[in-house]
């Protein structure tokens, strides 16, 4: 039995990487978006790789920025190549794998004033039977002063990391509210459905889906998969639909939190999201309150072209 709470560790590391990223925004500024994006990606990646190596030696890591294909990327003033992920063969036989996206919503991070970007830290763990599942996850929303995380009871909670921010649960003034509250996905209002979609790459079928459903649909463009799934869990939208491309790191941590908060999270054909596979592509996802899932899955199947790759 480990004496470390993996849920608390995920939240601590996501929050710390988030604070680091707020500092990168201040330090680098918005003059050159490419420099700001690369510096944020790589500084957060290096922080998480070093923290995981120190706190969880022996665990495998799969990070967006640890692929060999990003070896040419450099943070401003840093000549090292990014620290590499655990080799694939080793990761596939590992008992514990951290799946991290050091900066999700990189584009939004580079746009002054935008708050829809996130840090994702998830733990995938193999049980005694050899089957793996998401065991813990945390999504930091540094510019919103919030972290959404799983907890040891199988649930999820919302942590206010910036006491100056109004609490989105109670909408009360910051400091008088509890710092951490349980997180449960709220049910949608009858007859209405707000669906979060990518700002830049919404699935091509989603407009047809909106027209087909028997409810009043509003499409809400938001950056970052973590920020969109958080928006579902905070009741700012009612669903997130994506297809056409994404990777395990884009959804592992937010899916872990969503499941802990009682949400439905699956592929768009209703099959389970599976992690720590040889090929990290995981191109589509649906997250919503369980009451909306049958309608959305049927609707997506109906407008098809939306089958998983
Ligand atoms: N068609 C696609 N192919 C590959 N990745 C995609 C994708 N659509 C979205 N993503 C990734 O999913 C995350 C959320 O995207 P979006 O904000 O458009 O919804 C982004 O992660 P990163 O910001 O970490 O690169 C983005 O790169
Ligand atoms: Mg991402």
Q: How is the topology of this model organized?
A:
Elements: H1 6-28, H2 33-55, E1 60-63, H3 88-93, E2 96-104, H4 106-109, E3 118-126, E4 132-141, E5 146-150, E6 156-160, E7 180-182, E8 192-198, H5 206-212, E9 216-222, H6 225-233, E10 239-242, H7 248-260, E11 264-266, E12 285-288, H8 293-303
Parallel strand pairs: 1-2, 8-9, 8-10
Antiparallel strand pairs: 2-3, 3-4, 4-5, 5-6, 6-7, 10-12, 11-12
Distinct small molecules bound, one entry per kind: adenosine-3'-5'-diphosphate, magnesium ion
The main β sheet shows up as:
7 strands, mixed
CATH topology name of the largest domain, in short, is: Fructose-1,6-Bisphosphatase, Chain A, domain 1
Shape: globular
| Helix segment tally | 8
> Which structural class matches the secondary elements?
alpha+beta
Task: Please tell me the CATH architecture of the largest domain by its name.
Answer: 2-Layer Sandwich
Distance between the termini: 38 Å
β-strand amount:
15-25%
The strands making up the biggest β-sheet line up spatially as: 1-2-3-4-5-6-7
Q: CATH homologous superfamily name of the largest domain? A: Fructose-1,6-Bisphosphatase, subunit A, domain 1
Helix content: 25-40%
How many beta-strand runs? 12
CATH top level label of the largest domain: Alpha Beta
* Uncertain regions spanning at least 5 consecutive residues: none
Mean pLDDT: 92
Cα-atom Rg, whole angstroms? Answer: 19 Å
Number of domains: 2
H and E order: HHEHEHEEEEEEHEHEHEEH
Biased composition (Basic and acidic residues): 73-82
GO molecular function: 3'(2'),5'-bisphosphate nucleotidase activity; inositol monophosphate phosphatase activity; metal ion binding
Region (Disordered): 62-88, 155-180
Pfam families: Inositol_P (PF00459)
């Amino acid at each position: 039995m480990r004496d470390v709470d993996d849920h608390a560790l995920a939240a601590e590391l996501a929050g710390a990487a988030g604070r680091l990223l707020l500092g990168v925004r201040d330090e680098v500024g918005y003059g050159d978006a490419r420099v700001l994006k690369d510096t944020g990606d790589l500084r957060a990646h290096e922080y998480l790789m070093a923290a995981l190596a120190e706190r969880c030696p022996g665990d495998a890591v799969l990070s967006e920025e640890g692929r060999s294909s990003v070896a040419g990327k450099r943070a401003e003033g840093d000549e090292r190549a990014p620290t590499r992920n655990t080799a694939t063969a080793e990761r596939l036989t590992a008992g514990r794998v951290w799946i991290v996206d050091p900066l999700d919503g990189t584009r939004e991070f580079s746009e002054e004033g935008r708050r829809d970007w996130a840090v994702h830290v998830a733990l995938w763990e193999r049980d005694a039977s050899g089957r793996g599942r998401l065991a813990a996850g945390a999504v930091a929303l540094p510019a919103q002063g919030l972290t959404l995380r799983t907890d040891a009871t199988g649930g999820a909670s919302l942590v206010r990391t910036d006491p100056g921010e109004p609490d989105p649960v109670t909408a009360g003034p910051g400091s008088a509210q509890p710092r951490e509250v349980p997180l449960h996905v709220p049910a949608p209002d009858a007859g209405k459905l707000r669906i979060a979609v990518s700002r830049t790459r919404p699935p091509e079928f989603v407009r047809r889906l909106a027209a087909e459903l028997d409810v009043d649909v509003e499409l809400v463009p938001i950056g970052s998969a973590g920020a969109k799934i958080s928006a579902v869990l905070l009741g700012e939208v009612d669903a997130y639909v994506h297809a056409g491309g994404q990777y395990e790191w884009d959804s592992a941590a937010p899916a872990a939190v969503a499941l802990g908060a009682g949400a439905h999270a699956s592929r768009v054909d209703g099959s389970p999201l599976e992690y720590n596979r040889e090929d990290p592509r995981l191109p589509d996802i649906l997250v919503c309150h369980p009451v909306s899932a049958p309608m959305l899955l049927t609707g997506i199947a109906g407008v098809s072209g939306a089958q998983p790759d």
